[in-house]
Design brief:
Blueprint: E1 2-11, E2 14-24, E3 29-33, H1 40-47, E4 55-60, E5 63-64, H2 73-76, E6 78-81, H3 93-98, H4 110-120, H5 122-126, H6 137-149, E7 155-159, H7 167-182, E8 186-191, H8 194-198, E9 203-208, E10 211-217, H9 218-223, H10 225-231
Parallel strand pairs: 3-8, 3-9, 6-7, 7-8
Antiparallel strand pairs: 1-2, 1-4, 4-5, 9-10
Length: 235
């Protein structure tokens, strides 16, 4: 479904991604894990056209989208849930959610998708007229994910979806990601926590200093001796 090959990204003269290659198959949940500054968020932004690439190629469902502008991504079936939610704080929950169906291609199935989103996130229906800024961080994350689903993506990208959330809300978001995936939607997310990353993904990639240093099945990554020693404190 998604194939990133030899991706290099620079911010001015500083290179942040080096020859990065990852894949996401149809219906997969794939995690990108790494410490701060490893390039996780830059990778997702580059895939979605929010950051210009220096060289390399990005293909989605066989089509080269390396130079496609960000505003066209939802029309091809890709949606990004940004880090720290990025809701419009003075707008209501429902207004924020419905912005996800703003693109022309998404309008035909708005009612159908909204019904599914409200089933998946009952809080959307319960708080539809509440101002978004008055919700907790976890509740806002649910609204952000719901907004991302309203365009009908086949691939949902999530930038640090568990950041700053309580353990209870983290568990709720994990359950929601599983439900979204069961619907046939592939998910690519990044995270700093090893257990959250590789414990909830079919496959995973470990990044360090803008490079992929390890990849494999999620549970295999959890059992990798390097991962256990460096990231889990095992000896």
């Amino acid at each position: 479904m998604l194939e990133v090959s030899g991706l290099n990204v620079k911010y001015g003269d500083a290179q942040v991604l080096w020859d990065m290659s990852i894949k996401v198959g149809a219906g997969e949940v794939v995690a990108v894990m790494g410490p701060n500054g490893s390039g996780k968020s830059t990778l997702l932004k580059a895939i979605c056209g929010l950051v210009a690439i220096h060289s390399g190629q990005i293909k989605f469902e066989g089509k080269d989208i390396s130079s496609m502008p960000a505003h066209n991504m939802t029309s091809i079936g890709m949606s990004l849930v940004l880090e720290r939610r990025r809701l419009f704080p003075s707008m209501t929950v429902m207004e924020n959610v419905m912005l996800g169906a703003y693109a022309k291609h998404a309008r035909d199935k708005t009612k159908e998708r909204l019904a599914w989103v409200e089933e998946l996130f009952p809080i959307i229906r319960e708080r539809r007229d509440q101002i978004a800024s008055r919700m907790s961080g976890g509740e806002q994350q649910m609204v952000a994910i719901a907004r991302g689903l309203m365009s009908g993506p086949r691939l949902l990208l999530m930038d640090e979806p568990f950041l700053g959330l309580s353990p209870k809300m983290v568990s709720a978001i994990v359950t929601l990601v599983q439900a979204i995936n069961k619907r046939g939607i592939a998910v690519l997310f990044n995270e700093q926590n090893v257990q959250l990353s590789f414990g909830n993904a079919h496959r995973g990639y470990l990044l360090e200093s803008g490079r992929v240093v390890l990849e494999g099945a999620g549970l295999e990554m959890l059992q990798n001796e390097t991962v256990k020693r460096v990231y889990l404190g095992s000896h």
